[in-house]
């Protein structure tokens, strides 16, 4: 981190209060659910990195291969004097690919996991001494601001990994619209979006044989126990992940193995056998569906690339 960094960190107690409130509301609701944004504490962020290394989880390596192929073209589209804004920083290898090709004037990492973000940006700053590296703690599911200099370099937002897929389509539109507003006119967006495909490929990707995705899912229960003092048996819940074709999304759940209870904040939550906590939606889009979504959020689709097997897409749009 260099000295010009404007670091916006979260208050830890506020983070815990938010998790508690969300967990209570999510456990009281029917069906029960919790936002996938709570996966990404430090341990969860590391588990996600490990997911990306699993042979069944094609999105990361496929997006990397696309980026490697297109980066010179992206550099030309973006032009000189850009500020690379990484949404959901921590994808260190992906952003390095772009940094080498773009040679931007600056880098701003925006992520919800503050500790992880700091670690990633510090490493980036050490490896790229010529680069002005900044960090901002941002939760895209709410209104957000980016610390951009008016009259500074032209922002190019980089939103890799199909993270946008975690939002319901209407929310995704709102996130993109807020991003367009935060970036201002004349900015670019390079965004990775997972494509609709054979459900067998999707089901395998979210049920890796090594059980890393299962551990990632279980991490939510561990957080409730460790951070909120919940009384629960993490092993009493099984990882469930499957493609829901009607909704066009992969769903992850934690399914109660037999009847059991969770105690949290003085409240008792009774689970029937098989009852689930819905922990994630991962929406998949056709190229046309995502372009329509971008347009409805105020972006103009400019280019789109896919891999030869059409597993994954990378879109370039402008405000
Ligand atoms: C980071 C939201 C894109 O949906 O594939 C990976 C998260 N969940 N395995 C995805 C995830 C289970 C991932 N995103």
UniProtKB/TrEMBL annotation:
InterPro entries, per the entry: EgtD (IPR035094), EgtD_Methyltrsf_superfamily (IPR051128), MeTrfase_dom (IPR019257), MeTrfase_EgtD-like (IPR017804), SAM-dependent_MTases_sf (IPR029063)
GO terms under biological process: methylation
Annotated Histidine-specific methyltransferase SAM-dependent domain residues: 21-318
For this UniProt entry, the molecular function terms from Gene Ontology, in alphabetical order, are: methyltransferase activity
Q: Which UniProt keywords apply?
A: Methyltransferase, Transferase
Q: Which residues form the signal peptide?
A: none
Q: Which domain of life is it from?
A: Bacteria
Q: PANTHER family of this UniProt entry?
A: ERGOTHIONEINE BIOSYNTHESIS PROTEIN 1 (PTHR43397)
What is the protein's name according to its record? Dimethylhistidine N-methyltransferase
Q: Which organism's genome codes for this protein?
A: Thiohalospira halophila DSM 15071
Taxonomic lineage of the native organism: Bacteria, Pseudomonadati, Pseudomonadota, Gammaproteobacteria, Thiohalospirales
């Amino acid at each position: 981190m260099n000295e010009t960094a404007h670091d916006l960190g979260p208050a830890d107690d506020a983070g815990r209060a938010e998790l508690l409130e969300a967990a209570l509301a999510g456990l009281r609701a029917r069906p029960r659910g919790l936002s996938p944004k709570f996966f990404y504490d430090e341990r969860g962020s590391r588990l996600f990195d490990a997911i990306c290394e699993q042979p069944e989880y094609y999105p990361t390596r496929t997006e990397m291969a696309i980026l490697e192929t297109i980066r010179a073209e992206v550099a030309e589209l973006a032009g000189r004097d850009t500020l690379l804004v990484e949404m959901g920083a921590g994808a260190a290898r992906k952003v390095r690919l772009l940094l080498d090709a773009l040679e931007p004037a600056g880098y701003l990492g925006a992520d919800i996991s503050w500790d992880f973000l700091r670690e990633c940006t510090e490493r980036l700053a050490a490896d790229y001494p010529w680069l002005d590296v900044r960090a901002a703690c941002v939760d895209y599911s709410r209104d957000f601001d980016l610390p951009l200099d008016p009259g500074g370099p032209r922002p190019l937002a980089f939103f890799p990994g199909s993270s946008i897929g975690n939002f319901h389509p209407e929310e995704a539109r709102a996130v993109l619209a807020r991003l367009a507003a935060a970036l201002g006119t004349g900015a670019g967006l390079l965004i990775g979006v997972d494509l609709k495909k054979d459900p067998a490929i999707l089901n395998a990707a979210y049920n890796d044989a090594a059980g890393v995705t299962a551990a990632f899912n279980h991490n939510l229960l561990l957080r409730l126990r460790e951070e909120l003092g919940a009384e629960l048996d993490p092993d009493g819940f099984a990882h469930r992940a499957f493609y829901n074709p009607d909704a066009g999304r992969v769903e992850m759940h934690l399914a109660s193995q037999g009847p059991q209870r969770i105690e949290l904040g003085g409240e008792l939550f009774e689970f029937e056998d098989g009852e689930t906590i819905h922990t994630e939606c991962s929406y998949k889009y056709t190229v046309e569906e995502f372009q329509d979504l971008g347009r409805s959020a105020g972006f103009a689709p400019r280019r789109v690339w896919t891999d030869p097997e059409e597993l994954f897409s990378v879109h370039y749009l402008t405000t």
